[in-house]
Amino acid sequence: MGEKMNLTLSSSLESHYHIFSIDQFSKNQLLDFFNFVADINSNPLHFVESLKGKILATLFFESSTRTRLSFESAMFRCGGQVVTVEDGRSTSIQKGETLEDMGKVVSQYADLIVVRHPEAESCNKIAQTSDVPIINAGDGGHEHPTQALLDLYTIFKHKKNIDGLKVVFFGDLKYARTVNSTIKALAKFDISFIFISQDGFELSSDTKAVLKDKDCVFYKPSELSDAISQCDILYITRVQKERMTTDVQSKLFFLTQDHLNASKSDLMILHPLPRVDEMDKSIDNDPKAYYFEQAKNGVFVRMALLNLLLNPSIKFI
Ligand code: NCD
Fold first, then answer.
1. 275 is annotated as an active-site residue
2. If we measure between CA atoms, which residue out of 6, 9, 47, 5 comes closest to residue 26?
């Protein structure tokens, strides 16, 4: 087991003590990381003892199914153990404890802390006092870097080459943190982007700024079929109602089987999930639907991340 675990990655990831943002990864580091994930994906049993004796703490102050459980599953699959807060309101934060104090204390119990919180500054606050690495598992509407890693890994796994792809983003592009992180990750590659959103759900100015030198086209929702017919990847998101102050008609966005009629045979449809009412569920039977596999890939991606941060036999040069 020990011999199999010795691995040298070519890109220096030394700055990755904490994972706050997808900005921390260069294109080469992403590719290096995806090759490592692919290794885990094809040989998960080689890693069953890779984190034996290590403890992960998951601190969740917002609802989650995939992110928390896949991090926990990843830790168990690597032989480690988990302590968890699945609802931050059950902690001493309710008594007035600060995130900084909580970070200091939890870092005495665990070797790594995964945090989801509604505030963009939450991970920084915890990292200020933590004695162990922090991974951002979603900080409000800001970023979700590990989702971006699994989104791009899913593309890498099937397309091999991320450069040269045309990607359509459809849905709530304003409030979805996965959109922010995944666009920033894709923008490190040679990608053509098409964005389709209703009024009021357009890309944030910060994300647009990242794309200033990129090939970007903005289509109307009525042009969805036309946009899809040209693209290699369709990334769809739900309306993030919890981040909005006014009630909206989420049916504004709806992907049907008809929209896919003229699509390429190797189109990949991705969705970070959960989905609510933005797509016809019969699309699940279409081989172009990759979103459940995407969720599964989250376990391999998180096994890789946990090993990068906690396993000393994985070296970087
Ligand atoms: C996403 C999130 O939490 O931002 N979910 C996830 O982690 N897969 C997307 C969403 O909630 O819409």
1. no
2. 9
